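Students often ask what a 'structure token' actually looks like in practice. Rather than answer in the abstract, let us consider Hypoxanthine-guanine phosphoribosyltransferase, a protein of 176 residues. Its sequence is given first.
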Amino acid sequence: MQHDPHLAECLYDRTAIDALMDQQATRLNARYAQSRPLVLCVMTGALVYAGHLLPRLNFSLDLDYVHASRYGDARTGGQLEWMARPRHAVMDREVLLLDDILDEGVTLHEIAQWLKAAGARSTEIAVLTHKQKSVPQACAPDYPALKTPDRYVYGFGLDVDGLWRNANGIFVAAPT
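Now compare that with the structural description of the same chain:
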């Protein structure tokens, strides 16, 4: 297959990913030490990231998910589609959104706006990867992320054409 991670350019291996998540956890543990945030995993991409980040967090939290996407299996974003909203009430809650990538930032921005309208006290964003774009993005991560070039990347939860979320690193996809 043309996107086989064994043959692709690796931007970040597991050592770099783990180092980033350790750094994020240190900051998140300090930030939420005295509170009980609602942590929302943005499905499906953030599943792997959240599964590795959550055990590093040493504060109590409520965990839920949202499933909203502009991509599906496509490589370009379209209209935001909600498949699932959180089951937990967000009114007067501190909310931490976890996602695999901040690309254009539209999906995360729209989710954050929905949370604000639903009464969330605050919303912060932590992502595994932050694509470096030459145009302004709709929002920014509140915690450090792995910077990627403005190319299509996959692995560790990020997919390429619906595949390779299970790749154990962050890889650059071959052009289509």
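One point worth highlighting: The longest strand covers residues 122-131. Ask yourself how you might have guessed this from the sequence alone, and why that guess would often be unreliable.
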